[in-house]
Amino acid sequence: MKILVINCGSSSCKFQLFDMDTGVVLAKGNADRIGIDGKLSYKSSKGADLEKDVELPNHKVAVKLVLSQLTDPETGVISDVSEISAVGHRVLHGGKFYSESVVVNDDVKRVIRECFPLGPLHNPANLTGIEACESVLPAGTPQVAVFDTAFHMTMPPKAYTYALPYEISEKYSIRRYGFHGTSHRYVSKRAAEFLGISTEGLKMVTCHLGNGSSFAAVKDGKCVDTSMGLTPLAGICMGTRTGDIDPAIVPFIMQREGLSPEEIDTLLNKKSGVLGVSGVSSDFRDLAKAASEGNERAQLALDMFSYQGSKIVGSYAAAMGGVDVIVFTAGIGENTDTIRDAIIKPLEFMGAKIDPAKNNGTRCEAVISADDSKVKIVVIPTNEELAIAQETMALI
Ligand code: AMP
């Protein structure tokens, strides 16, 4: 069975075609700069590796191009689009309506549309991608929506309610939703499998540390709290996002700098985080290099990240009454042993202890805790596309 995974952004259409029988990625790429100066990048398991300029006026044309690339007689990997059994779409926001992935129908499309105000950059593009696939794939090809928010829908009201006037929260559906749900679901399940333990009664903290970073407290395999909020701006400081700050800072800066709502949104989302603090980069590799050369602000940004990470993991231990397993994943979580070490060090008081020999240099699935650690600490590489493909296959 072959499953196509589509991740449409406002001007891009990323894709991966999986052979689910072998687990092989047959092809992947991106139809990018839609509505600007279209570019297609494409790699296949047969060795094709190409980049070309293309006309991409809209998402429908982009999806059509992806399908014609996949069926190209020379560089394609399938002979006909009918070989695609289903399409799994990454959808940012399912509001409070979906705690699982769903097969797309008119109701699902209506909900994705209703959630436009909650995901103004992504949800319209996600829906456009779904409609584009519907219009160019053979009638009846199932489409599945896999929501970034779904895994977090099991949080109790005390974790997701903001202390705002209740009527305002109700009126605008303001609450903690959380993101990276597909990744948190995937690595929490995989970590339990890898350790050979049941999720029943298990208390886990999953740390998705990438350019965007979030944490989830997972009890009995279900999310009970997470660090991102109404939007992905909340929680730990990130590549370019502030993470949690005193909300009064927002009007304070707006008034003094004369910024519009759009301008402050850009400042908080794109110019802050470790980039804003260091003035160097949003990339942790650049920060580590600058810090090793004596750049104090780069070191401060790294210290802030680890400090905030430790505090979040510690607070989730309190939320769940303990932690059995801590999972590190995503670009930083999978690759940066120094950050893993710095996050865990202050948690030794609760029995979480890293073994440097296991941690240093580890970039793959592995246990990195010391033999006498009360908490198992593991690295589990995330694979959101594969998770979307697996959820799609399970549903159809
Ligand atoms: P992601 O959003 O998961 O792709 O993660 C992106 C971030 O992970 C980058 O900005 C880097 O800071 C970090 N990262 C990715 N790869 C590596 C690596 N090989 N070594 C250290 N950090 C990495």
CATH topology of the largest domain: Nucleotidyltransferase, domain 5
Backbone CA Rg = 21 Å
Per DSSP, the total helix count is 15
Oligomer: single chain
Low-confidence stretches: none
Order of helices and strands: EEEEEHEEHHEHHHEEEHHHHHEHHHEEH
Number of E-state strands: 14
Instruction: Tell me the CATH superfamily of the largest domain.
Output: ATPase, nucleotide binding domain
Structural class: alpha/beta
Order of strands, main sheet, comes to 5-4-3-2-1-6-8-7
Helix content: 25-40%
Q: Report the mean per-residue pLDDT as an integer.
A: 96
Distinct small-molecule ligands in the complex: adenosine monophosphate
User: What is the percentage of strand-forming residues?
Assistant: 15-25%
Describe the largest sheet. 8 strands, mixed
Give the CATH level 1 class of the largest domain: Alpha Beta
Give me the CATH architecture of the largest domain, please: 2-Layer Sandwich
Instruction: Give the count of structural domains.
Output: 2
The global form is: globular
Terminal residue distance: 11 Å
